Amino acid sequence: MTATETEPVDGSLLRIDDAISVLLDADLSRLTEDDLLELVRAADRVTRRLAAVDHRVLGEVIGRGIAESRGYRDIGSLLAQLTASTLSQARARTAAVAMLGVRRAVTGGVLPPLLPVAADAARTGAVSIAQTKVIADVVRLVPESDQPTYRDLIDAELTQHAVAGSDSVTLKQLGTRILAHLHPDGDQPRDRQADRHRGISLRELPDGCGELRGRLTPTCLAVWQSVLHPLMSIPAPTTFESEPAVVEPGSDPIPDDRSIDQRRHDAFEHAAQRLLAAGDLPATAGSPDHPDHQPDPRPTRSPRRASHHPPRRPPQPHPSHPARGRRQNPARRVRPTPRHPRLRPRSPPGQPRPTVSVVRPR
To answer: Which of 31, 172, 224, 346 has the fewest beta carbons closer than 10 A?
Structure first.
């Protein structure tokens, strides 16, 4: 066993901390331009290698199950608590650990990373954190059935471009092209998700036209494509802008100058007209016509609205103002009795108090 393997980890971290302190206290004004550029390259290489150290340490934490044993949901929650970062930042930091970190077998043995080429490049500082994240994301998008076949090929190809100098954006574009070649038809649609997001809206516009929007399920899309495709070749109906064309026998057919969307619109209208002419639609909107069914003549009202919003009564005049809003004599205004006891006129005992009326001349 070598001295490097027996060296304590804490001592290595202390030396790294001391080296960073020396660099922070160094006088950089004495360095030349070439020396400064070389220092930038060296600092970037060390930063990339520290990311590989982070992958190895977090991989060991995940392999031991420390997060679950201490009551955390996953390694992201534990890392967010230790480093005072958000949960999204912690999970983004641990996203590439499953692909680039060291794994543990059930028996306790050490397994190589799933992306060995990218992991070796990260150990030497040849690729950055963003580049390794793109490589791991591209491999993760490959279906599990094709992972054993294409995982190593994608790892070697993208890592080669990353070492050659391609940035993360270029790597993402290359990964998208690789996935497009592997699956030219795209992913299989999810039936439950397609069924949940289905819907059609038909809205009438102020000018009398309509706007049709919607999302169809694969089955409904296939049905409408089968219906509209043969009807798109039928000539357009007569409109205000064009007159019906008369084709003489033996002459060449008139070219159709409609766009694809206009042909689809006319086919949709023609299909609706054929459906109405067939007479197979229900007599009642949305439900089959039944001879014993009698519609309720009473207006329908939501029970929740009826319980929480009772019918309004017509406004009643207030008892103290029987003729509110209307004056019997506009020239006569009666002032109320003063409330102050000194201003009230006194009356004999047993008699009601007289009211004081003041008439203002016009």
So the answer is: 346
Q: How many CB atoms lie within 10 A of CB 130?
A: 15
Are residues 45 and 174 part of one domain?
yes
The confidence band for 224, taking pLDDT boundaries of 50, 70 and 90, is very high
C-alpha–C-alpha distance, residues 255 and 242, integer Å: 14
Q: Identify whether residues 171 and 222 lie together within a single domain.
A: no
What pLDDT band is residue 181 in, cutting at 50, 70 and 90? confident
Tokens of 24: 């922070």
Q: Which residues on adjacent β-strands are paired with residue 284? A: 287
**116 lies in the same domain as 263:** no
The pTM of this model reads 0.47
Sign for the CA dihedral angle at 275, 281, 285, 287 comes to negative
Query: Contact at 8 Å (CB) between 118 and 132?
Result: yes
Structural domains counted in the chain: 2
> Alpha-carbon distance 72 to 81, whole Å?
10
- Name the nearest CA neighbour of 62 among 84, 91, 89: 91
Same domain, 162 and 226: no
Tell me if 195 sits within 8 A of 217, measured CB to CB. Answer: yes
Q: How far is residue 110 from each of residues 61, 261, 324, measured CA to CA in Å?
A: 13, 60, 93
Q: Which domain holds residue 44?
A: 3-182
The residue type found at 162 is A
Cβ proximity of 73 and 66 under 8 Å: no
Is pLDDT larger for residue 144 or for residue 139?
A: 139
Structure tokens at 358: 């003041």
* Cβ–Cβ < 8 Å for 102, 56: yes
What is d(CA 6, CA 2) in angstroms, rounded to the nearest whole number?
A: 7
Q: State pLDDT tens for residues 321-340.
A: 555 545 555 555 555 555 55
Structural contact between residues 254 and 243, judged by C-beta atoms closer than 8 angstroms:
no
pLDDT in tens, 41-96: 888 888 888 888 888 888 888 878 888 888 888 888 888 888 888 888 888 888 77
> How far does CA 181 lie from the centroid of its chain?
27
Q: Do 178 and 269 lie in a common domain? A: no
Mean pLDDT across 308-332: 55
